[in-house]
Amino acid sequence: MQITDLQIPNYERVASAHEADYRGFVAIHSTKLGPAVGGTRFWRYASDEAAIEDLLRLARGMTYKNALAGIPFGGGKSIILRPGGEFDREKIFRAHARFVNIFGGHYITAEDVGTNPDDMAIVRQETKHVAGLHGLSGDPSPFTARGVFRAMQAAAKYRWGADSLSGKTIALQGGGNVGYHLAANLHQVQARLIVSDVDSGKVSRLVNEFGVNAVAPEEIYSVDADIYAPCALGGTINDDTIPQFKVEIIVGGANNQLLEERHGDELQRQGILYTPDYAANAGGIINGCRELLSWEPSQSLAKVDEIYDTVLAIFDTATAAGIPTYKAADRLAEKRLEE
Fold first, then answer.
1. Is there a domain that residue 298 lies in?
2. Which of 15, 64, 82, 253 is deepest in the core (most CB within 10 A)?
3. Are 110 and 165 in the same domain?
4. What is the CATH classification number for the domain harbouring 29?
5. For each of the chain's 339 residues, which pLDDT tens digit applies?
6. 195 assigned to some structural domain
7. Is residue 34 within 8 Å of residue 74, measured between CB atoms?
8. Residues 253, 213: Cα–Cα separation, whole Å
């Protein structure tokens, strides 16, 4: 395996690896609070530069997510470049596990976009530095969705004075694992759902199970709704989409929802209450504490529900300081890192 270290300022270590069909990257942003934890993303990118840019943002986001959630882990992330055509998935994930091993426990991986507990079981055959295994913490998506739901309730409380979502219209982008479980939570409290996904099969499942309304992927930004919930890939809050929004609140499970930080400033100018992504979507890593810290399931669930109070604290800080909510979240996370 050929390993190359990349010199990236403000990151503890960033490296790439290549072996046959396997090409991967690992970034460790910080181990100040503990081992860097962050999932493996299995995805196709337009270029290596695009993959590295995504990797760095995701790793930094994990540092802040874990700090804000009050759990003893740092931030890291890994990406496997998905090959074109046919490939041997087991060989690729075994190679990735050997790459993870070179970090000596300073980086612990788990699932992310494009990966699942079966992949992590393969990784476990080559390294112990992995979480999200069957029979342990398992699939994190129900817990991520639960945290997003609690964040959504907090945002509703802050904006409308009550945290009930009954009768509210939510524009849900992405019907994957997190989007599906979030839809289930929202359906249970009688919210109205408008959904989109590039995968028509995922949309059909939501329509059949929850009776949602479906729109084309490019239409989800401009629907009449109370809340926009991005639960697919990042960067969907940008110069093109912000003028289309007809919502009062944005809260979802996707990472890196703001294409650039200035888009958080623009949301504030537009009067849209933005819930910082890494505050809302921390439920998955909190659930991982069952595996990593031997927490009881009830302990994890209680910690996920604390996302409600964390989000309200972010809004209060933003209002008191007169700053956008994404800056308030960073401020709270950085305070915990300093402490």
1. no
2. 253
3. no
4. 3.40.50.10860
5. 999 999 999 999 999 999 999 999 999 999 999 999 999 999 999 999 999 999 999 999 999 999 999 999 999 999 999 998 899 999 999 999 999 999 999 999 999 889 999 999 999 999 999 998 887 877 888 999 999 999 999 999 999 999 999 999 999 999 999 999 999 999 999 999 999 999 999 999 999 999 999 999 999 999 999 999 999 988 999 999 999 999 999 999 999 999 999 999 999 999 999 999 999 999 999 999 998 999 998 999 999 999 999 999 999 999 999 999 999 999 999 999 998
6. yes
7. yes
8. 20
Q: Which helix (H) or strand (E) holds 200?
A: helix 200-210
pTM, rounded to two decimals: 0.89
CATH code of 251's domain: 3.40.50.720
3-state helix, strand, coil in the chain (%, to 5): 45, 20, 35
Same domain, 177 and 316: yes
Q: How far apart are CA 172 and CA 165, in angstroms?
A: 14
**Distance from first CA to last CA of the chain, Å, rounded?**
39
Helices (H), 230-324: 262-270, 277-280, 283-292, 297-305, 307-321
Cα-to-chain-centroid distance, residue 295: 21
Residue range of the domain that includes 100: 2-56+74-124
Total domains, the chain: 2
Cβ-based neighbours of 216, under 8 Å, separated by 6 or more = 196
Q: Are 199 and 114 in contact (CB under 8 A)?
A: no
Tell me if 296 is assigned to some domain: no
* Same domain (yes/no): 180, 209: yes
Catalytic residue among 77, 168, 202, 303: 77
d(Cα 131, Cα 124) in Å, to the nearest integer?
Answer: 8
